[in-house]
């Protein structure tokens, strides 16, 4: 099947620093793919270019065959590229369900027409999405009192409300306890399987990566140095060198 995302020769320089240097890869439909690499390898720079936050110095990005390079973030998001790394996307004064309802209202472009009765709209759809992320029982709690791990799961429900084809998650488990990390990635893997979407994520916890990613790419100093299954990447001499500081 055709790739959902095709990245070709993507580069970004900041002054003299080549933060990302000639990176090419595909993401297949239904694939859970990890981009790993040491701090400063260029992972976030890559993600920011895929989302339209940063303009590449050169290279192209295609979503389902259509070039999206250089489009503003909102247009890329509208075409079906979701993301979850922004915790600030939740409205603290609203309940969990209301946050998802707001996302659904925005997705259906009905924000201004429905504001007076927004709290009743898309309630059932919101509850269904909260059920997907295991938060149905917390639907009517205020966001402000949620535990960090629950806020992360709420973020995932909000991202899903836009029905993305591809989800980009830049260090989704940062700041979480080890057990919570495994849970969030298990949940993500279940969503990938059940909804057939693709996910590209970065993560520094290797246990999480090796346990869940279908395919792993390793970035070092802006260049992809290895890719493959967990076993292949683990045994790769260059990867060991980078991670063990050889
Ligand atoms: P990672 O996410 O893998 O830790 P980054 O993509 O954040 O790596 O950073 C890659 C390199 O690009 C680093 O050397 C970083 O200092 C540099 N960099 C990132 N963003 C900027 C920026 N806005 N201006 C200048 N240099 C940057
Ligand atoms: Mg980063």
TrEMBL record:
Entry keywords, A to Z? ATP-binding, Nucleotide-binding, Transport
Say yes or no: keyword Nucleotide-binding present.
yes
Xref: PROSITE patterns: ABC_TRANSPORTER_1, ABC_TRANSPORTER_2
InterPro entries given for it? Answer: AAA+_ATPase, ABC_AA/LPS_Transport, ABC_transporter-like_ATP-bd, ABC_transporter-like_CS, BCA_ABC_TP_C, P-loop_NTPase
Q: Name one Pfam family in it.
A: ABC_tran
Q: Name one GO molecular function term.
A: ATP binding
Q: Which family does it belong to?
A: Belongs to the ABC transporter superfamily.
Organism, per UniProt?
A: Roseibium polysiphoniae
Protein name (database record)? ABC transporter ATP-binding protein
Q: Which segments constitute the ABC transporter domain?
A: 5-246
């Amino acid at each position: 099947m055709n790739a959902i995302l095709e990245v070709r020769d993507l580069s970004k320089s900041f002054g003299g620093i080549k933060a990302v240097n000639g990176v090419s890869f595909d993401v297949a439909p239904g694939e859970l793919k990890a981009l790993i690499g040491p701090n400063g390898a260029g992972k976030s720079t890559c993600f920011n270019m895929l989302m339209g936050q940063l303009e590449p110095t050169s290279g192209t990005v295609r979503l389902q065959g259509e070039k999206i390079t250089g489009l503003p973030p909102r247009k890329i998001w509208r075409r079906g590229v979701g993301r979850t790394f922004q915790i600030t996307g939740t409205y603290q004064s609203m309940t969990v369900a209301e946050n998802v309802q707001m996302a659904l209202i925005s997705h259906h472009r009905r924000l201004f027409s429905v504001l007076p009765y927004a709290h009743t709209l898309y309630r059932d759809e919101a509850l269904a999405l909260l059920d997907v992320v295991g938060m149905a029982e917390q639907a009517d709690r205020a966001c402000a009192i949620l535990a960090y791990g629950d806020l992360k799961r709420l973020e995932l429900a909000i991202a899903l409300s836009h029905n993305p084809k591809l989800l980009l998650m830049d260090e989704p488990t940062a700041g979480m306890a080890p057990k919570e990390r495994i849970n969030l990635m298990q949940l993500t893997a279940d969503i990938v399987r059940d909804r057939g979407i693709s996910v590209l994520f970065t993560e520094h916890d290797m246990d999480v990566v090796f346990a869940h990613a279908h395919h792993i790419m390793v970035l070092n100093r802006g260049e992809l140095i290895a890719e493959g299954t967990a076993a292949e990447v683990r045994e790769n001499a260059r990867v060991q060198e980078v991670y063990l500081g050889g």
